[in-house]
Design brief:
The strands form two sheets. The protein has a three-stranded antiparallel beta sheet with strand order 1-3-2. It has a two-stranded parallel sheet with strand order 4-5. Helix 4 packs antiparallel against helix 10, helix 4 runs antiparallel to helix 11 and helix 9 packs antiparallel against helix 10. It is 69% helix and 5% strand. It is globular and about 50 Å long. It folds into two domains: 66 residues, Arc Repressor Mutant, subunit A (Orthogonal Bundle); 157 residues, Four Helix Bundle (Hemerythrin (Met), subunit A) (Up-down Bundle), CATH 1.20.120.530. This is GntR family transcriptional regulator. It holds the Pfam family FCD.
Length: 245
Amino acid sequence: MDSQQSRVLVQLRDLILKGEFVPGERLAEIPLADKLGASRTPVRLALASLEHEGLIEQSPGGGYQMRRITSREIADAIRVRGLVEGFAARLLAEEGASRQLLRDLHSCLEEGDKTVNKPTMDLDDYAAYVEVNDRFHQLVMQGCGNVALQRIMEMLDRQPFASPSAMLPMQSSMKEEGHEWMRQAQRTHHALVQAIERGQGSRAQALGEEHVEIARMNLEYALERPELAAELLPGLKLVADTTRG
């Protein structure tokens, strides 16, 4: 994914979380491209990515439209992703990671550190971290060599807000607190790579499962503070709170 597409993808997610669209609203390429100051191609590719994540759906009249999402389906998918990624990390630790994979993981760590350790993060920083974060998780899943796990992850990536970077705009909206959560996520990346290098399977699995808790905490944080969500995350009107039923 190139930098312009990553930026447009982050912007579109952010617009959704800021309440710019309502369930059933059609998302047309040309108006969105004009709104974002981008060409149609990155907008088209970003919309396809958002459909893959389950955040939007195809419109009966062609193109895409917003869909209604339940908090339960988000939370369930996030938990399952933790189990899958945790097991993938365990396999890497126990079976051994190649030197090239470890070099690639360390490269992600270095790039991520440069981004999240800034005093403040702007939209370009979030777009850059999306790329690094997605690449890190892809490396772990591809490196584990378990085709069944990889297929399960592909299905999970189609669930709303369940993909590795889907909750990052929510952290962006929450400003300082979200920035600290991202730093914590990056620290977990470091610990996960360390566990893989040391062959600590149980620790790697636990870290993989724990890592997704940041995304789940983001969701719960907003749902439990409707007055804050109304100000910072009005897009949560797309999410029906079903975690307490």
